[in-house]
Amino acid sequence: MVRDQGNSQLYAESATQAADLLRLIIPQISKLNLTASPTNYTIWYEYYLATNVQLKQAIDKCIENGTVITNDLLESFFCTYITDQSACDLAQVQENIVHLINGLSDIAKTADSTASNYQQSLQESSHQLENPAANQDLLHVVSKLISDTQGMQSSMQTMRSHMNESQNEINDLRNKLDQITAESLSDALTGLTNRKGFFAAFEKALTLSEVSSYSISLLMIDIDFFKKVNDTHGHLIGDKVIKFIADTLTMQIKGQDTASRFGGEEYVILLPNTPLQGAKVLAETIRQKIEKSRIRRSNTQESIGQITVSIGVACLHPNEKKDKNKTKKVLESLINRADSALYLSKENGRNRVTIDQP
To answer: Comparing 330 with 81, which gets the higher pLDDT?
Structure first.
């Protein structure tokens, strides 16, 4: 289940917990001959805190395989598992944009200089043509004018070529930015939207509900005994289960519905224009679909046993939708009620659906 969204902080450990973590971190950094940098400290802090599951799995896999843990490796882990990878990609795109702008500036300066020189040549030619001293002077003026014009044409062709190349770079950067935007809203393992994507979808749904006066429901889904799956079958099978559940959710939703991975083995489904009873029907369909399915090992086709989920269902209260300027508060209330219903499903035996009672 989720933490209390209203009071959660990035690092909310007590001074005693932080001191205990420090006693683990410093010897580890020294043992691996790593730089005592803020990045490395943060990596090991989150590792020993054990709340960043994907980071811990990645480091454990390195240790298990005997991979040498270096500063560069931890830097990549920091980018992947702690900061948003899209932030690192965006920084690279920003650097490329600066480079492109500088290149365009140089092209503009060159074109301006060439045009200025050509204008000066035209003025000189015009002056000489007004007062020709001899036919030979006239021929010289015409010859120079032709040469300068050809030079200008050549410069313009070069500039057009550079501008075309710059346009291609701009298109590439635009595509990269579109890709970064999509990736920043998606979970890498499942392809579902992540929390950020879910929050964006909810904000949009809330705005539309204020206009259309429709209901918004939420399913909160948690895999039962997932830790046992990991402990018994390993993290690769655990990842396979997480992906299987995500694929099942994707197949069951439609239209404006949004399925998101909310945590390690926890998901949410946002259901715009769906009343509480309609959400309950979908939740029960999902529960039964997963209960009847079997996941098998790829190499032996051996079943890993039955996988089930517990689900909590909640619906946005009419008075909550009136609070237009407090989207975060409205969402927290909806999540907390769905989470409480999920808790009851767990308490009452798991593999069941519980509805929040308004």
So the answer is: 330
Name the 3-class secondary structure at 309.
Answer: strand
Token reading at 168: 């291609």
pTM for the full model? 0.57
Q: CA–CA separation, 261 vs 53, rounded Å?
A: 14
Contact status, residue 58 vs residue 67, Cβ threshold 8 Å: no
Active site residue ranges:
265
Structural domains of the chain, ranges and CATH numbers in brackets: 15-83 (no CATH), 86-184 (1.10.287), 195-355 (3.30.70.270)
The whole-angstrom separation of Cα 215 and Cα 279 is: 10
Which residue has 């021929």 as its token pair? 139
Question: What is the rounded CA–CA span in Å between residue 339 and residue 312?
Answer: 6
- Report d(CA 113, CA 233) in Å as an integer: 70
CA pair distance 183, 198, nearest whole angstrom: 13
pLDDT at residue 97, rounded to an integer: 58
319-343 confidence digits (pLDDT tens): 776 555 677 888 888 999 999 999 9
Range in 53-57, 147-151, 307-311 with the lowest mean pLDDT: 147-151
For every residue of 65-114, DSSP letters joined together read HT----HHHHHHHIIIIIS-HHHHHHHHHHHHHHHHHHHHHHHHHHHHHH
Cα–Cα distance for residue pair 96/101, rounded to 1 Å: 9
Nearest to 268 by CA among 203, 217, 207, 321: 217
Rounded to 5 degrees, what are φ and ψ at 186? -120, 150
**Residues constituting the chain:** 358
Element (H, E) at 267: strand 266-272
Q: Phi and psi for 99 in degrees, rounded to 5?
A: -60, -40
CA distance 29 to 69: 10
Q: Which residues pair with 354 in a beta bridge?
A: 312
| pLDDT tens column, 270-301 | 999 999 999 999 999 999 999 999 888 877 88
